Amino acid sequence: MPRLARRAARKNKLSQVRFAVTLRGPEMRKVNIGLVGCGTVGSGVVNGLAHNGALMGSRLGVRLSLGGVAVRNPRKARPTRLAKGLVTTDWEALVRDPKIDVVVELMGGTTTARRVVTEALKLGKPVITANKALISAHGESIFRLVEKNGGNLYYEASVAGGIPIIKSLREGLSGNRIRRLYGILNGTCNYILTQMEAVGMEFAAALEDAQRMGYAEAEPSLDVDGFDAQHKTGILASLAHGFWVKPGQIFVEGIRHITPLDIQFARRLGYCIKLLGIVKKRGGKVQIAVHPALVPETHVLANVSGVYNAILVRGDIVGDTLHYGQGAGADATASAVLSDLADAALDLKHGSLGRVPPFVPHEQDGAVLPMDRAVSPFYLRLSVIDRPGTLAKIAAILGGAKIGICSVIQPEGHVGESVPLIMMLHDAPDAAMRQALKKIARLSAVKAKPTMIRVETFE
Ligand code: HSE
Predict the structure, then answer these.
(1) I need a surface site. Which of 188, 226, 269, 307 has the fewest CB within 10 A?
(2) pTM
């Protein structure tokens, strides 16, 4: 690198991208990036380009250049340095600027972000977004716009951070019918459950720990009540089955009710507890749900700990594939945005508008199986008065609902009048189980709200 370029590169990492890429020669096509939003992920993308933009340029034969960055507050401290001339507060001008070839939306939220994406697509510009909430809420209309305007929308960073699961489903596994998909898609919940298991913490203490570590937000509902995983599961289900799944069609249950006692009993029975996004093809319908599940401790997903994410995809031809990595954080998410930038740059270079379209109805798919009709084994923990006849009454309710009992644990030597009663139940429809549970909860011998957790057998 010439002396002058070296000096400039030291001064500003951004210039490093520019000089290094400029040296590739004038014949290389240049793609100007308009970045809207420069918080944690945006800064990660700017830094990623500074580190690997030149490498990407030589791999792609396209010069990637940051053409402008729209932010709300230019004076805000950021984990990256932005050259002064690049920054604007006017996202509309940036998106409309004819010099901007591709728009990267990393501002979050669903209101202005929707306008940014819509505006860019109407101009026929390719758009990259990491915004799962936006895609989940407005994906259908956004993808219609893509189709109408002949653009391309890239959203690798919207699910599972650095794991290239969108590309894997859309392209890598496009020769398969997807039979099953199981995802540990929320790092915060996985961290909380891992801590509860490792240290025996209560949920509230593990959540505080996750907040101290910067994983969970001050308002943690999006994560711990399962909604973040619901957005991601919906996006994956839509891709896997070729029809748009609305968030309201996805059963969701979070992890607030899980206790260290459940985790201990699950272990004793040979399981651990994970929050799973589940997509199962059953006949002509697709079961789509997010809930905590008992996972056999020998299963590969049982060993996904801490903030890591993993997705197991079962195709009819390939069999099981496992996709594992960091599901959040500036660098992991930036890696996904950079991969979208690579795709967008190549598509622009070759004039390709023909990525595998996201939602192509498959011949039999197209309907979501209501959760009532989902079938699984169950774990049940009750707090009961230890007196003759209690177990018989519970067994009678379950028998009446045609739910078979697989095993029962009632630990000896308990303190106080109530005792935990743990039951493993055979396969039953969800609606039947919930009905039976209501009846069981009304028994005078049952002292606290029963805990029911579905068991995932991965069959
Ligand atoms: N809050 C999410 C998680 C990351 O904990 O996995 C962003 O989707």
Answers:
(1) 269
(2) 0.91
